[in-house]
Amino acid sequence: MRNIELADLEDIALGAAVLGAGGGGDPYVGKLMAQAALRAGGPVALIGADEVGDEDLVVPVAMMGAPTVMVEKLPSGFEVMQAFGALQAYLGRSVRAVMSMEIGGLNSTIPIAVAAHEGLPLVDADGMGRAFPELQMVTPTLHGVKATPMAICDEKGNAALLETIDNHWTERLARSMTVDMGGAAMIALYPMLGKQLRPSVVRGSISLAQQVGRAIRSARVERRDPVAGLLGACPGALLFEGKIQDVSRQTDGAFVRGRVRLEGIHASRGRDFQIEFQNENLVALCGGEPVACVPDLISTLDLETAEPITTERLRYGLRVAVVGLPADPQWTSPAGLELVGPERFGYRFPYRPVRELLPASGRA
Amino acid sequence: MRLRVGIDVGGTNTDAVLMSDRELVASFKTPTTEDVTSGVVTALGGVLGGAGGLGSGVAAVMIGTTHFTNAVVQRRDLAPTAILRLGLPATQSLPPMVDWPDDLREASGNHSYLAKGGLEFDGRPISPIDPAELRAIARDIAARGLENVAVSAVFSPIKPEAELDAIEILREVLPEARYTASCQIGRTGLLERENAAILNASLRVLGGRIVGAFRQALADFGLQAPLYFTQNDGTLMSAEYVERFPVLTIASGPTNSMRGAAFLSGLKEAIVVDIGGTTSDIGALHYGFPREASVAVEVGGVRTNFRMPDILSIGLGGGSVVSEQPFGIGPRSVGFRLSQEALVFGGRTLTATDLVVAGGLAAVGERERVRHLPADLVEKGLGWIQEHLSASVEKVLLSPEPIPVIVVGGGSILAKDAIAGLPVIRPAHYQVANAVGAAIAQVSGETDRVYALSDLPRERALEEARFLATQAAVDAGADPATVEIVDVEDVPLAYLPGNATRIRVKAVGEVQLA
């Protein structure tokens, strides 16, 4: 166990944005909320999954909906506490720890605010190891953990409790409520006992985010290459360095799908590179051939500062480094790939692990 | 004859040019003064006196000034300001100015109010405005003696009434106050837009004073011409508009240089290197305009979402100090004291300018005074300058196509005939490109809103956005007959129904001259 202090949030938020793989929203608002909560409630204890007792109840909390709404309609701060409280009351027993369900983006920091407010520890884990667009796309789903009972609240005080037959239905019903609640809502879901949690989560996520953020920030301060700093802090490969030549987007249901075309610079000069995204980056193609794909993480970073660039902010002329980071091994199992692999997002080619591509891409 | 005066107030020099249509008639460079205004008066005298009393023929005066940037960065001349945010019960977790540096929050008084109001993304009210609540807030603002009020509302870019209606209610109690509505300044992103609105409100007293001082200076020259200021995207605002929106002038300097460089060289696609006394600003021109930065821009430690040019600034200029052990040039600079402190001018500090003169690349001051410099030091120094300029240009380049590098600014002698293997162009009057940029600036208007394309067909939404941008340009002083749409960006938003799409349109036109 160790503490998350105010000074750690900067690194966690930056690292979480890298792990967002282009999605998950800008963690800025979440970071400010966690800062305020830590100032008021003191540091938060960060515990490993092994430190959670078998019968201890853990409740993850998150924002659901459009990150673009969150930067405009800022939370009241009470809705996430209300969701947490409503689920705890419904379960009729004390919650022992809070958890993040999505380390990528702003859902990394919101649970820190709740933990500080409730005086509870935070589990150093999450349910994705990255960001994904739908709430059933979490590793506990692979282990039969149910998303419900789940609480969903808005800033006006409206609250609902859901019991569903499976996690796909939870996503579907919660999604339409979120829209009525103004496009963004706060949720508490996937209540888990320690014995269910341990085999089913992605471990060490908060620490990984912090490590990644610290590596980038210290490289900047010491005037070293921050992208190299990032790749020194976690396994991963530099896939490409280039300038954005073109970005095209279209909506497909509730999601935005798009494609970005890059022109190589430095060692990547002369190569043709594309990234396709649906909120998050899904596939990276070099000369038309996939070199990285979901569930591995594909992140675009500013070439100079390694500041992560979300897919909404991609635009012509940006100079970026594209990095590929391996997904948690649970995602590369047959069941994991069925839930979040390339075919799930409409691609016909099978998953190709970025790990195997490291030598071919030249630089790791 | 249509004469225009362009003035750029920089950190080191205040430059002025007199232009007749598209011809440069006269130019003048003078050190920037502490009060800024007296340097401007000197510069004005330099160009108008030099042209033989052309004052009466001047049709417009365009000024790019650092007054407002300095006020924010140095936390001075900021008026106490009330900020009212409409959006309760939403937003209270992060009250206004939550992410400001403490000293700046104190400098603007730290008076913030939250009230019911604001909109959902689709235009529904979050909660209706409560006039009684707003009147009570107005009375409290009055009791605190505050005369500057910034108003923000959740999703106000969708419907400005969310803020404007509240202002009407405040006005009943506070008829004399100066109001800034966030929707008139910024884009989507509540904190950033609100930050800009608060900064603007706290700068309005200074704005009135500065505009008054410039008007007086023009009157002293017998100039009847209207006064314009350049803003951060390189376009103009009328003086009346600056009094209302002074914050939009922040960071206009680098943009003026780039626009001036485009004009003087006749190029629309190029890299511009503006070498001053202390720093060099490097940016890319695209269609003759500076490329805009894509990330949030901080002003004095505050996050905003202004339209800022994407500029790489390095600490290398004509006055950069050369240190021998260990070897390095800049970022320390003798700045505006170059003409006293550099060796070639009889001073005692070895500067980048001295190296250039010693190397025979330029004739400035007395070359005799740098003859004693060891040849290897000069060579090493010149190599260092070349390498740093080349590396910076490499970073800014947009494509592998060999586009030219336009070098402007007082420190231009530092640049050789090629940078990063690209040809260097030094247009005529390169020393005053920034003032030229101000003189030729156009007027713009912008809109940035979220549309539900299920209710409104895309073409209609774009048409409305074009209309609003055009209207904003005309309001800012553009000649309606010349207004053109220069930029359209539409980004569909994830997770929202009804094909919610954010549409941003920018229109630009020529100044309406009387």
Structure characterization notes:
The complex is a heterodimer of chains A (364) and B (514). The longest helix of chain A is centred in the middle third of the chain and has 17 residues, at 205-221. Chain A has a seven-stranded antiparallel beta sheet with strand order 16-15-14-13-12-18-17. In chain A, strands 3, 4, 7, 8, 9 and 10 form a six-stranded mixed beta sheet that branches. In chain A, strands 1-2-5 form a three-stranded mixed beta sheet. Chain A has helices at 9-19, 28-41, 67-70, 78-91, 110-118, 139-142, 167-180, 194-200, 205-221, 226-233, 334-340, 354-357; strands spanning 2-4, 44-47, 57-65, 97-100, 122-123, 125-126, 150-153, 159-162, 184-188, 192-193, 202-203, 237-252, 255-264, 272-278, 280-286, 289-293, 297-302, 319-325. Chain A folds into two domains: 2-203, CV3147-like domain (CV3147-like fold), CATH 3.40.1610; 235-357, Beta Barrel (CV3147-like), CATH 2.40.390. Chain A starts with a strand and ends in a 7-residue tail after the last helix. In chain A, strand 12 (237-252) and strand 13 (255-264) form a beta hairpin. Chain A has twelve helices and 18 strands. In chain A, helix 1 (9-19) crosses helix 9, helix 2 (28-41) runs parallel beside helix 5 and helix 9 runs antiparallel to helix 10. In chain B, strands 11, 12, 13, 16, 19, 20 and 21 form a seven-stranded mixed beta sheet that branches. In chain B, strands 3-2-1-4-9-10 form a six-stranded mixed beta sheet. In chain B, strands 6-5-7-8 form a four-stranded parallel beta sheet, sandwiched between helices. In chain B, strand 11 (270-275) and strand 12 (280-286) form a beta hairpin. Chain B contains 13 helices and 24 strands. The mean pLDDT of chain B is 88. Helices cover 32% and strands 26% of the residues of chain B. Among the domains of chain B are: 79-208, Rossmann fold (3-Layer(aba) Sandwich); 312-431, no CATH class; 442-509. The chains are: A alpha+beta (364), B alpha/beta (514). Chains A and B meet through helix 2, helix 3, helix 7, strand 12 and strand 13 of A and strand 23 of B.
